[in-house]
Write a structure and sequence with these properties.
By secondary structure, the protein is mainly beta. Helix content is 0%, strand content 46%. Strands 1, 2, 3, 6, 7 and 8 form a six-stranded antiparallel beta sheet that branches. Strands 9, 10, 13, 14, 17 and 18 form a six-stranded antiparallel beta sheet that branches.
Length: 196
């Protein structure tokens, strides 16, 4: 709940800080950034968020808490989603990470990584470093406008979801939009997966 003296509360409960970078203390940081996983909480609507650095705390600011707010993790600002082949090598255009990323193939089942898909089946323990469970229903996903089959969707570690998605055979080569809808909410538009 604390990293380098930084802590965060969401709805007056300790969040789990897993990344912190300050432009004031680290020249490699373009701006200040704190990544925190919200605690388990069934509250919805506006909740207060407070950041504390040592003994100094920010004024509370409001954030909207939802039960489901799905979003793919992204490799880049261009919108390429974090995804891997079955051998765990990276999916993306060859120039995304030269020598390390390759496009997906039609008919291939890939692992895409996301956040915000809500609670899985089973019981989660707040603060546990090991959490898992399948989602109660599979999301509906599209790649390049085509429906994509899912073999699995679930929590694989605290806050991290894995979706095993098969690239539809009719997907054209190049950058294709990818989206998933779950519980009435959709991933943000503009997300991409490269297929060849």
């Amino acid at each position: 709940t604390q990293l380098h003296g930084i802590s965060v509360t969401v709805n007056n409960r300790p969040a789990f800080v897993y990344f912190y970078c300050s432009a004031a203390t680290d020249p490699s940081c373009a701006s200040d950034q704190i990544n925190a996983l919200t605690p388990l909480d069934s509250t919805t609507g506006q909740v207060p968020v407070i950041v504390t650095n040592g003994s100094a705390s920010s004024a509370p600011f409001s954030a909207t808490m939802k039960t489901i707010a799905p979003s793919f993790l992204l490799f880049s600002t261009q919108g390429y989603i974090v995804a891997t082949h079955t051998d765990y090598s990276l999916i993306g255009p060859a120039n995304l990470y030269p020598g390390k990323s390759t496009p997906a193939k039609t008919g291939e089942t890939i692992a895409a990584y996301a956040v915000g898909f809500g609670l899985p089946n089973g019981t989660l323990t707040n603060g546990s470093s090991s959490q898992s469970g399948s989602l109660p229903a599979l999301p509906v996903c599209k790649i390049g406008g085509n429906n994509a089959a899912l073999a699995f969707a679930g929590l694989v570690s605290p806050g991290l979801y894995q979706l095993n998605i098969t690239i539809p055979p009719s997907t054209p080569s190049g950058d294709n939009p990818i989206s998933c809808t779950y519980g009435g909410s959709a991933t943000p538009s503009g997300d991409l997966i490269t297929v060849q």
